[in-house]
Amino acid sequence: MKKRKYKTMEIKTIAIIETILSSIVTILWILGLIFADINLFILAMIVLIIAIIPAIKYFSQIDEYFRKRGGKVVDDERTQHIEAKSSLPAFATVLVVSIYSAVAIFTLRNVYPQYTDLAYPFFIIAIIGFVVYMVSNTYYKRKYSD
User: In angstroms, rounded to a whole number, what is the distance separating the alpha carbons of residues 75 and 68?
Assistant: First the structure.
C-alpha cells in the first residue's frame, strides 16, 4: 500500500512541476511579446523543451492524475469522445482558412505586392498541418488495426 501511495505522490510532484514549467513558459512568452524581446522567446522555448521531456515520459500517469482530482472523475470517456469529435472540424477549419488566405494573398500580389510575403507562412502552416495529420493517422492505423 505504501508503494502505491509513494507512486501517487511522485506523479503528483511531476504534475506540479509540469504545471509550474508550463506557467513559466507562458509568462516568458507574454513578456517576450510585451517587450518585443526574442531572448525571452528563446528562453521560453528552452524551458518548453525541458518541460516536454518528463511530460512525454510520464504522459499516461499525468493524464490520469488530471482526470481524477480528489477521488472525483473530472474527465471521462464521454468528454474525450466530444473533444475528439470537435477537434477534427477545428483542425480542418484552420487548414482551410490558412490555404484560402494564402491563395487570396498570393492572387492579389499584383495589387498588393507588399503582402505577398504573408502568404508563405499560411502555406507552411497548411503543409505542417497535413504532415502532422498524415503521421498521426499512420501511427493510429498501425496502433489500432488488426
Answer: 7
pTM comes to 0.56
Widest distance between CA atoms in the chain: 72
| Cell numbers describing residue 21 | 514549467
Q: What is the pLDDT of residues 5-50, one digit of tens each?
A: 546 568 888 888 989 999 999 999 999 989 989 999 999 999 999 9
The grid coordinates of residue 72 equal 472525483
Give the residue carrying C-alpha cell 487570396: 104
* CA proximity to 58, closest of 27, 2, 87, 16: 16
Q: What 3-state DSSP class applies to 145?
A: coil
Q: Which amino acid would we find at residue 20?
A: I
Structural domain boundaries in the chain: 2-73, 77-144
Mean pLDDT confidence for 125-139: 90
Give the list of residues 6+ apart from residue 90 with CB closer than 8 angstroms, or none: none
Whether 133 and 122 have beta carbons less than 8 Å apart is answered as no
Q: Is 36 left (phi over 0), alpha (psi -120 to 50) or beta?
A: left
